[in-house]
Every structure is written in C-alpha cells, then in structure tokens.
Design goal:
InterPro entries: GlcNAc_PI_deacetylase-related, LmbE-like_dom_sf. The protein has 475 residues and is an alpha/beta fold. The protein folds into two domains: 268 residues, LmbE-like (Rossmann fold, 3-Layer(aba) Sandwich), CATH 3.40.50; 142 residues, Immunoglobulin-like (Sandwich). Helix content is 32%, strand content 24%. Strands 9, 10, 11, 12, 13, 14, 15, 16, 17 and 18 form a ten-stranded antiparallel sheet that branches. Strands 4-3-2-5-6 form a five-stranded parallel sheet, sandwiched between helices. The radius of gyration is 26 Å and the shape is globular.
Length: 475
C-alpha cells in the first residue's frame, strides 16, 4: 500500500514539474511576444503626458458621430463616465450610414442595388445605433439622428451651401429620407445641416463637445469637424472640446481585441503636438464598450477589428487652436498629411502665416519650390465674419498661376458672376495673397482654408481643410 502511495506521490511530483515547465515556457513566450510588439510598434507604448478627462453633474456632453458606430468605437467610456457623474448626454449622428456596400452581403446576405435597399440599410444601422446607445445607458430621448448622406458630407461642406441640394449616389435622395430623423424631408445643403447643428447646440447648450479630429482620414469625419467648428464660431460658444480619431491607416496596434492594453494616439497627433486627454475604463466598462460595439452587428463581419478599440483607456485630442499668431512652421504642418511633407518634388508648404488688418486679409505661403508659369494653385477660402452668419458668408475659390501678380477669385455660391482679383506678391519661394474686406465680408473671427495643386496635374496634391482663428486686435 505504501509502495502504491509512493508511486502516486512520485507521479504527482513529476506532473507538477511538467506543469511548471509548461507555465514557464508560456510565460517566456508571452514576454517575448510583448517585447516584439514593443520593438515593432514603439508608438503603441511610448510614454506621453496625458490629462484625465473629468466631468460633473453640471456638464452637458454633446457627442457628434459621423456614422452609426463611431460613438461606440471612440466614446463609449466617456459616455459611461458622463452618465455616472450625473451629466446630461446627447449623441447626434450626422448620417444614417447608408453608404454600406460591404456589410449587407455578409450580414444580411443581400447585396444592395436599388435606392430603396440602401435606405433600408440606413434604417437598420440607425436601429443598431439605438441598441448600442441603450447598452451604454442612454435613453431614446438622448439620441438625435440627422440622416444626411453617408459619404457626402465633405462635398456638401465644400460645394453645396445654398445652391441645388446634394443628391445621394446610393439613396437617390436630395432631402433627408428617414422618418427617424429629427429633420426628415430637409433639403440636403450645407446651410441646412449647419442650421440643424446650431439648433441642437442652442437648445442643449453643451459644456463639452466631442467630435472627430482633422487627422482622421475619412472625409465624413473631417467634414463633421468643420461643421462643428463653424457652428461653434457662428454661435460664439466656447465649450470644452474633445476630438477623437477612428480612421488612420495602420492604427491602432495591435489590430485585434486587446481589452487590457492602453489606447494611444496616432503618430500624427504627436508630430503635430496635439495635447492628449484620456478616459480610464474599468474592466466592467470595457465590457460594456465591447457590447456596444458588437451591437453594430452589420459592421462587425466586414470590419472585425472594430473591437480593437475596446481598451482600458480612450484617448481624445485637444483642438489645435491655430490662429494668426501661431508659429508659421507649426501651422504649415497641418495642411498636408505627414507622409507628404517630406516630398520635396511637390510644392508643399514650408511656412504659413496670416495678417488680418484694416486693409484686408493677407496669406503668406512659403512653398517647397517656386511654381512655374505653367502651374497653378487653387485655394478654397471660407471666411467667418466676427458677427457670425457663416452660412451666408462668401465661399471663395482662388486660382493662382505661378509668377502672376494677381489671382482670380470667384464665389462658389455665385458661379456665373465675373471673377474678381486678389493682389499677389512674391519673395523667392514665398507667395503672399491679399484679399480686401469686400472679398471676405469684413473683419473675421477666422476662416477655413484648403489648398490644392492642380487641377488635372499628374502631381496633384490636396491639403486638409484647416480652421485658423483670427485673434482680435487689442485697442
């Protein structure tokens, strides 16, 4: 009997030894994998200075989501913290997410072809957004759907203010086609969209506004930022602003479900010097965020990596706050995506400065090289008067040809009107364009600017649309 017991004891000891060796091997493999990830993707773990986002019951938080799912991907933790603090929360969706040609064949086993089928996608995605919002603790009264064209917000901001409404290429609608929308039937123009946002902001009076950052690659996300900035400027509101990012190639890392990993900002945020603000999530809150993302079921099959955003932190970016007094080198960095800045063969901007005086607005651009006489550059200049009324302010389209002493200026809202002239001066590779007050509509609180090389050239480049504030002169 004792021999049998000794045998059992010996086998048990051997099993424990084997288990210990296996555990050691697994731990070593995990450590090696972690070391590999840290070496391969240093931006994911590099230390940064971050400020914690804090909210109280006195706050009113407005989250703006370009599509159904962005609010869950980027802001689930923030929404949970706001509700826990007793703050009021509203989530506003700019579009219904109806321009979805990948998800339906996989999820609903139906490939959309007709406008009615695409509108049906919009209805279903709005329902998914409601389901996700309820997971986060929001009620139906906290949700606002506008339903403007998915994939069309950038075109609307740049080209469709008070003219013929924008017609969606998938729903074939020129007015908002969804009964769930608070503005159902509204003609799809930039003026109407801006007015809709301003009405929400006027009634809710947010103390915190959350929306996409300009380094996000998706045009709808970029346009959402522009509409939000325009609305805040028009209404002269100054809430705390938190900006988020969803679409950046190769980000985040690791591109998989990693609930015990900290989130981090895209590399461009560090290059541009954008301050980071963070929300810390408990394991339970990460679980709620994961379920909220999963509620957007039609998006999970084609984009299974959406759960990669369910991490133990959420990182937001503070606004760039570029003004006419910002360093000219720093301002220039915001126009062109980082992967283009080092391309010396293109006329990328080296410095950008602004002078706003009684004589008008002067923009000075130091280019990477001199433009020859066969080249031209386009600028889209949208000024915001100090009195507001951005929607009805001029939307200027400027064409400058290399070496010319003037540039042609036309108003996009009056395309048949004869172009007028802006003065141009040169100093080496620096081009200075002066727009008198008659062109810009008077003294400004800021302006939107996009720069293009082209059109129709092989080396076409297009900048981001950047907001630059004008600091009032001290009398």
């Amino acid at each position: 009997m004792r021999r049998h017991a000794d045998t059992i004891s010996h086998e048990s000891s051997r099993n424990r030894h084997i288990a210990t060796v296996v555990a050691a091997l697994v731990l070593s493999a995990a450590m090696f994998a972690s070391a590999f990830i840290m070496a391969r993707f240093p931006s994911a773990v590099a230390p940064v200075v971050q400020t914690d986002v804090t909210m109280t019951k006195a706050d009113r938080v407005l989250v703006l989501s370009p599509h159904p799912d962005d609010e869950s991907i980027a802001c689930s933790g923030l929404i949970q913290h706001a509700l826990e603090a007793g703050a009021q929360v509203r989530v506003l969706w700019m579009t219904a997410g109806d321009h979805n040609i990948v998800g339906p064949p996989l999820f609903w086993r139906t490939a959309p072809v007709t406008p009615a089928q695409f509108r049906d996608i919009g209805h279903k995605r709005m329902q998914e957004a409601k389901n996700a919002a309820h997971v986060l603790g929001l009620s139906s009264n906290d949700l606002i759907f506008l339903g403007y064209p998915d994939g069309g917000l950038s075109d609307i901001f740049m080209n469709v203010w008070t003219s013929k409404p924008y017609r969606s290429g998938v729903t074939n609608a020129a007015s908002v086609p969804y009964a769930e929308s608070t503005v159902a039937g509204q003609p799809q123009t930039a003026m109407n969209l801006l007015t809709d946002l301003e009405q929400v902001m006027t009634s809710f009076r947010p103390t915190i506004v959350v929306y996409p950052n300009l380094i996000d690659f998706h045009p709808d996300h970029q346009a959402t930022e522009l509409f939000v900035i325009a609305a805040l400027a028009d209404l002269h509101l100054s809430p705390q602003r938190l900006e988020y990012v969803v679409h950046v190639p190769g980000w985040p890392r690791p591109l998989r479900y990693a609930p015990f990993v900290d989130a981090y900002a895209p590399p461009a945020a560090r290059v541009l010097g954008l301050r980071q603000e963070v929300v810390h999530l408990t394991p339970q809150e990460v679980g709620v965020k994961t379920r909220a993302i999963q509620a957007h079921a039609s998006e999970l099959l084609p984009f299974a990596t959406l759960v990669a955003f369910a991490r133990r932190t959420e990182v937001f970016l503070a606004p760039a706050d570029l003004t006419d007094r910002t360093d000219a080198v720093r301002t220039a960095k915001f126009f062109f995506p980082i992967n283009r800045v080092g391309d010396e063969d293109r006329p990328v901007i080296q410095t950008f400065s602004v002078t706003d005086s009684a004589g008008g607005l002067q923009l000075s651009l130091e280019m990477g090289r001199v433009l020859n006489r066969l080249e031209e550059m386009e600028l889209f200049l949208f000024p915001v008067p100090t009195t507001g009324g951005f929607g009805s302010a001029p939307k200027l389209h400027v064409i400058y040809r290399g070496g010319a002493a003037t540039a042609e200026v036309s108003d996009l809202e009056h395309p048949t009107a004869k172009p007028v002239i802006a003065r141009v001066s040169h100093d080496g590779t620096t081009i200075s364009l002066t727009f008198d007050n008659a062109l810009t509509g008077g003294r400004l609180q800021g302006f939107f600017l996009r720069i293009e090389k082209g059109p129709g050239r092989v080396d076409l480049t297009r900048s981001r649309t950047v907001w630059i504030g004008v600091v009032p002169a001290v009398s």
